[in-house]
Amino acid sequence: MPQEVSIREAYGQTLVELGRENPDIIVLDADLSKSTMTYLFGREFPDRFFDCGITEQNMISMAGGLAASGKTPFVSTFAVFAPGRCFDQIRMSIAQPRLNVKLVTTHGGVTVGEDGTSHHAIEDLALAGSYPGFTIIVPADAIETNRAVRAAAASNGPFYIRLCRPKVPLVFDEGYHFTLGKATTMREGRDATIIAMGLMVGEALQATANLKKAGIRCRVLNMATLKPIDEQAIIQAAAETGAIVTAEEHLEHGGLGSEVALKTAKHYPVPLETVAIKDTYAKSGKPGELLVRYGLSAGDIEQAVKSVIKKKTRG
Amino acid sequence: MSQINGSQSSANLKKAGAFLYSASIADMEAIARKLRRHIISMIGGAASGHPGGSLSAVEIITALYFRILRQKPDDPCWPNRDRFILSKGHAAPLLYAALAERGYFPVDELLTLRQLDSRLQGHTDRTSTPGVEMSGGSLGQGLSFAIGISLAGRLNAEDYNVYVLMGDGECNEGQVWEAAMAAAHFKIDNLTAIIDNNGLQLDGWNCDIMNLEPFKEKWRAFGWHVLEVDGHDLTQLVDAMEQAKRIKGQPKVIIAHTVKGRGVSFMENNPDFHGKPPDAAQIEIALKELA
């Protein structure tokens, strides 16, 4: 098993790196800096760190004003609170004027665990994805988190980056080169393609190893940039493997599955299965238990691959 | 009439206050009348818009744009400009009229308000109009946005001032009080909020729809320095704005008592004209009253 590393800590450390390189980097948090790890930045750069207290809506519009004045604000809270609680503030103070604000949330998905429904962000990508002009990234591990946050800082415009709470196994090494808007091929195979993002990439790799033993070879794509999505990689996967399974820690509607279905339906229709939460809220439990209960485990991906291959051969 | 104090020469750039437009009170009264006529013609021409809340804030905007704000209309993004944030974005016609009269764009363009492809959108749009700092129209966001601009000024050691105009009805929004708390907490003193306290919101009187009182006590309790003026008295407005500049260590709010629809008899204190344009006959009467 590869080493498990906290992607939240990677985020905090990356902010410190960026803070040293660029005096215009500002960080805002809403009384969660010890959980989002932005306190690491605040400790080193107290003048450029603003704890806004529990005023998420105010924090978002403040970030808009800072960006309108040439600053690059990174804004953090839990993924349930932004975009959810501040949908309209993000819309008018950031998205419509296309301001250079980087919204980086932690505690995405159901792997928040025991805190339960109120803290499980399962709609956030649908909400963030609905803003015209936003770039959305869901990194798979700590190394990709570092690269994604750096890429966001280096490009102009609004970003939503969603991180998860638990430590996750490293799927990349230090030599990893991240390109915005490009999928990464993690495994090569011709029987089907698994397109995953976030911690589901780890689950997909585990599923792929098990399937290999059964003689099924899957291509695995890490679709870290959900928007703008790598359409070419999707079309190529459809053409070359003839079947696709998507895997995400989010509702089936408005996330990766919906986006891949849209692209394949328009450009290259192939059988598709979605591993995602199916129109329900999740309950309290341990992260691993919840992945199994809501159909998001490696085992669920294996089943989805088998069933999508059946649909393919039927055709 | 008025004179622009400081030409666009680079020598003047360095002088503080070089880009003030210093109209006399009498000049400003004439400008205010002109802005009111623009508002009626624009909203009448567009056959949609919000006359009431534009007319109530005319003197506030006149004092800012023709006396207080340090700006360069030919360089709307000049880094050291004073910022004005229109948080009550439905008063866009008033802001557009002031920007045009101040030279940001041709006065003729005012009559394109709300037309397809016009730079003058129904509510303020930062991406469309020179001189517009924030995309407005969704109430309650301007004060927070202004705090961000104020903090950037402080971090950059720039000496610009930031002004925000809010409606009283707008102060129903919870975000306004989040921002009120934050501005005091961060000791933001390059920020002055002005409230167009006309007493009316879309559905009726504030006190009947959502009572704001005790209003000035609320601001004081949140840590603000409160000034109160007759919002149609230019001398009082200018004095309060000058006084606000000198108060350090806390944010300032000017509660400006105004009359919704001010200057047009049948619109004054009439909530029906919150978001209803005048018809052809009403335009004629209004323009006659404002001649």
Question: How would you describe this structure to a colleague?
Answer:
The complex is a heterodimer of chains A (315) and B (291). Chain A is an alpha/beta fold and 315 residues long. Chain A has helices spanning 7-21, 33-36, 39-44, 56-68, 87-95, 124-129, 142-154, 200-213, 231-241, 256-267, 287-293, 298-314, and strands at 4-5, 25-29, 49-51, 72-78, 102-106, 135-137, 159-162, 168-169, 184-187, 192-196, 218-222, 225-227, 244-251, 272-277. In chain A, helix 5 (87-95) links the parallel strand 4 (72-78) and strand 5. The longest helix of chain A has 17 residues, at 298-314. Chain A is globular and about 60 Å long. Chain B has a single domain, classed as Rossmann fold (3-Layer(aba) Sandwich), CATH 3.40.50. Chain B is 39% helix and 13% strand. Chain B has eleven helices and nine strands. In chain B, strands 3-4-5-9-8 form a five-stranded parallel beta sheet, with helices on both faces. In chain B, strands 1-2 form a two-stranded antiparallel sheet. Chain B has a two-stranded antiparallel ribbon with strand order 6-7. In chain B, helix 6 (142-155) runs parallel beside helix 7. Mean pLDDT of chain B is 93; it is low at 1-17. The chains are: A alpha/beta (315), B alpha/beta (291). The interface between A and B is medium-sized, with 31 and 33 residues.
